[in-house]
Write the structure tokens for this entry.
Amino acid sequence: MSEKFWMSVDQKENPVDFAKNIPGEFTSSPIRDGFEKDGLDRRDFMKIMGASALMASLAGCTRRPVQKIVPYVNNPEEIIPGQPNFYASADMKSGYGFIVKTREGRPIKVDGNTDHPMNKGAISTREQALVHDLYDPDRLRAPKIDGADVDWKAFDDAVMKALENSKGSTWILTGTVLSPTLKSVIEKCNLRHVMLDAFPMDDVLEGQAQSFGSRVFPRYRFDQADYVVSFDADFLDNWGSTVEYTKQFSEKRRLDGKKISMSKLVAFESAMRLTGQNADLRVSVHPNDQLIVALGVASEVARLSGRSVDELSAFNAGAVAQRTGVAKETIELVAKELVKFRGRGLAIASGRGAQGVALQNVVNFINSVLDNDGEAMDGSSFPSNQFQGSFAEFDKLLNAAKAGTVKTLIIQGVNPAYLFADSMGVKEALKKIPNVIYVGSYQDETAELAKFVAAESHAFEAWGDVNPQRDLYSIVQPTIRPLWQTKSLLEMLVDWSPAMAGSKVAETAYDAVVANWKQLHGRFGGGKSFQDWWDDTLMSGVVGASGREGKAAARSYRMDALRSAISASRSAGQKGADGEFTLMITSSVALGDGFQANNALLQELPDPVSKNTWGNYLAVSPNTAKKMRWLDGDIVKIENAAHSVELPVYRQPGMPANVVAAHYGYGRKFNGRIGNGVGVSLSNFTGSSSMGITPANCVLGVKISKTGKKEKIPCTQGHHSLEGRDIVFDTSLEEYRDNPKSGIVRHFPNPPSIWSGHEYNGYKWGMVIDLSSCTGCSACVIACSVENNVPAVGKDQVQRGREMQWIRIDRYYSGDPENPETLTQPMLCQHCDNAPCETVCPVLATVHSDEGINQMIYNRCVGTKYCSNNCPYKVRRFNWFENNAPMNAGMEHPLPLMKNPEVTLRSRGVMEKCTFCTQRIELGKYAAKAENRRAGDNDIRTACQEACPADAISFGDTNNPNSKVAVLRDHPRGFTSLEELNAKPAVTYLTKVRNRPAEKKADGHHGGGHH
Ligand code: SF4
């Protein structure tokens, strides 16, 4: 057995004690834990209620609820009971194409539109969770004036009076507006418009302006890049257009069929993040050294390409190595490979303030010298509109407000009172404005400071449009009438427009959208009548999708930009005084900027890097923790002159020495019952920068001291142990080329079996997961939970190891804990042919179907949990409580509406687990049967497969030799987990291949062998 992989620092440092301390999965009985004595903390209880269900009763036996059904009185024409409807729409924030699935008029699931050229069928983790935001009972239900609910007539009258009185001094602050219709209405209303992104991309925009003369956010094209170097730009997580990038990146690295080439990713990272986890070469760098390292690479690139720049000579690899500790050979290697991939490479960066812009100028120089501009970096043909915020403009607004020249300010899509908290005088500025009109979904931090709070519709409840890239448009169409008395910003501005524009700019928001699209019709209508084109667009969901593949025009680089970067580097390299730390403020996959903090599915999503849930923590390198005598869960105080917070320590492999990191987006005070008080806010640490927070923000010179307090971090990774087994395999590209089976170890190639096996005469369902493609993003986890009514259970229950997610993304490390390699493995029910669970169930509640699915019969399950005990993959989930309350037993309105009626709600005392989305299988089979054919690859897609932006998951009929899954199962990289147990899983994994040379040192693994 190999001990190459490890899951946590404890396991690596002290495997014997770790094994002893792993709680038995079933020791976490509520009775043994004293749970019934203590009861549930009321606050946690409320969280769970809002989370995804109401626990109707903890003590009473509430199984087998009686549920009432009420037939339609008048059947709506387009609704066939039991049949879903699908509507094309788009996300107002990212501009990605959506397909919204509705049942009986309720949106219950959202996925990506496969025809959209950016997201190509995938959407992000947070977009997957949008459906739950729609039904959040904590949303504002009516507008308010001075904190009191009013009706829209009274609200509109009062707002219009305020707008009349402040003509010429009315401003509007929004996030990036992708809607051309909304932009034109704002213009017609004579509003001074400022856009501010929660995570500003000013560094990229300013860098582009300085380097090439235009302030654009380029369309980065990872599908054109064979070699990618990232200086802290976490493009697989929260930097830029992440779903689009993940799609392209994974496509470029896919090794199916006979393909033996893949792109290479090098990440210089200042905190351990998703992009570094997926890098072929990850280099841990202090955040204030990033600019110097980038200049070192630029210097070598310039030298090797014969474009020597005198000013860069001071940044030769040797000098940079001395200043930063990054090996000279690494800098030389990266430069050499970048030059080798001239025209097929890409350098990207993210940084803070002036240094951030300087970093951009350096990567722009590299891209320009190597002819990557116009190839993998498109700043001229179809640049992105996704980030238009300007921190400088926001600063002007603040100054105008402080000077008393802003009479009315409308705010929407951004929460400045949370983003900046007490820093930058944001709250004081807002208090000086006589009329703050806040348009939002929650009575949040900014709403608390506003005289007028306008309850905003969810994006699924309103008309709109988006233009995320040049010449690319989608219509946003409502899929449900507003649940409450809410309106969209577009509706509000149209209604208020007489007070600003002198007359109404359109009759309704819908009319405004149609009027705008009539203008687009001339360019994109293709000879169709407007109505036909409009109807077609509503159905297809996107306009301008084609013709975007070609090369863009290269721009000429302004050498002044490089000179200014070199002069900015004089302030780089500082590390703070002795005994001080540098705090990296990072964004989490789950919460991002904290906008969706009231979403329990997101709060309970294990962070893809740390596997922690429900709150932020301080990530510290294992060595630093050892030096400081900090252990996981020790609560420390982090302070600088401006601010202090307390966070629990978490030893995170891959963190640079003396650099600590914590996620932004937590510590909400005014959000809702789920989000309030989870974690701590870092906002006061962020505002001192000249450009606010960025996704790679760092604060120099923080002091950290132990408080003596301790907390158990709700981490999902520590529940399980590998017991030294080979559960995953990886290899290098070099070894793979020599031997496609390399990395895989088969202990018992043909183990004996006491089973006679099953016969599958019809379909036989199977899944293949490519570990080389999976980035660990966890979109599949949320998609599965939404599709299958999987509840969130709350922090306390996660701490006891009782999370319910049907798919978990296991994260394994190998190598040096200070900079390990990482591998992620989606783990779900393996639907084994020789299923260990089926053998031990005393009541036949878990049985095998004639299509190879391991089924759960909830009505039979008596909760002995033998099956879970006997499952080697630990993928079965037991309902300790009434997590999915009966709909007629007090579940808070409108939570019942979000449930997928195609999936049974499980009761207390029942075991559950992945079903391969059996409801989707049945629907696909029926559809195929209606056409008298066998269901094929495109008829059935599981929720996780559909969500995956990396296309890592394939599903289908393994009895059909032409199905994708049947072909992939036979790929030389294919293996099943714990093959030696002979459970014969229906899930096949494909080895992780890293684009690097073969390892020199022996580690016990040998290519495709047995022992
Ligand atoms: S399998 Fe899941 S975690 Fe992996 S890339 Fe796909 S969606 Fe993300």
Summary: The longest helix spans residues 353-369. The pocket of iron/sulfur cluster is lined by residues 774-780, 809, 826, 947-948, 950, 952-953 (CB under 6 Å).
